[in-house]
Specification:
The chain has about 130 residues and is mainly α. About 55% of the residues lie in helices and about 0% in strands. The chain has three helices and no strands. Helix 1 packs across helix 3 and helix 2 packs antiparallel against helix 3. It starts with 10 loop residues before the first helix and ends in a 5-residue tail after the last helix. The structure holds zinc ion.
């Protein structure tokens, strides 16, 4: 059996632990087993500590936080590019549309892991 988070730690420490483990897409309870069986699919339970990961329901929170993060990056970049280079609309779209898709698909699984870790820390199950 691997290290399991000590329950006597403070709630902020537990939250940081859950976030750190979740961002690595690991089981928030032990930090060793993989929490995901696919791109976004959660395992029903941890392969190391048998924690029931599948009972956590992240729902719309990961896409919401992903859009929030990527929106700030893309809008800031597009406005900066507009002011410094005054490019055509076609150039703006050809840069920022693929950037938006790539960043969303890149961030989403890690943000879902962070949401999972937060749910674990706050003992919120669906
Ligand atoms: Zn585990």
């Amino acid at each position: 059996m691997s290290e399991v988070h000590a329950p006597e730690k403070s709630s902020s420490s537990r939250l940081l632990t859950g976030l750190r483990r979740g961002l690595r897409r690991k089981c928030p309870n032990c930090g060793h087993g993989f929490a995901f069986s696919g791109y976004l699919t959660l395992r029903s339970q941890c392969e190391v500590c048998e924690h029931p990961i599948g009972e956590y329901r992240c729902d719309d929170a990961p896409p919401y936080f992903t859009i929030l993060l990527v929106g700030h990056i893309v809008v800031g970049g597009a406005l900066s590019m507009e002011q410094s280079m005054n490019p055509s609309m076609a150039l703006q779209l050809s840069v920022w549309l693929p950037t938006t898709v790539i960043l969303c698909l890149g961030f989403l699984p890690f943000i879902k892991g962070a949401v999972l870790g937060t749910q674990w820390a706050m003992k919120i199950k669906g």
